[in-house]
Specification:
The protein has 70 residues and is α+β, with helices and mostly antiparallel strands. The protein has a domain of 46 residues. The chain has one helix and three strands. The chain has a three-stranded antiparallel sheet with strand order 1-2-3, with helices on one face. A hairpin with a 2-residue loop joins strand 1 and strand 2.
Length: 70
C-alpha cells in the first residue's frame, strides 16, 4: 500500500488536484469528489507506469497541517 497527499483547490468553475510527491501528476473535475476520484486514477496510472518501466516508486514526504489563529 502507498499513501500520497493530494491537494485539491477550487479554480474558477472546476476543481483541480495535484500530488506534491508526484510532480506532473494532476487531475481536474467538475466537483471536489470528481477531482479526488480522477486524482486517485491519475496516481494509480502514474505508479503503474513507474512499475512497468522498472523505476523506483517515490516515497511520500509531504504532509499537511491546518494552522488555527485566534
Amino acid at each position: 500500500m502507498h499513501r500520497f497527499l493530494i491537494i485539491v483547490e477550487k479554480a474558477n468553475k472546476i476543481y483541480s488536484a495535484y500530488c506534491p510527491d508526484l510532480p506532473g501528476c494532476i487531475a481536474t473535475g467538475a466537483t471536489r469528489a470528481e477531482a479526488e476520484q480522477n486524482m486517485y486514477e491519475a496516481i494509480e496510472m502514474h505508479i503503474n507506469g513507474l512499475l512497468e518501466d522498472k523505476q523506483p516508486l517515490p516515497k511520500a514526504h509531504s504532509s499537511a497541517e491546518y494552522v488555527i489563529l485566534k
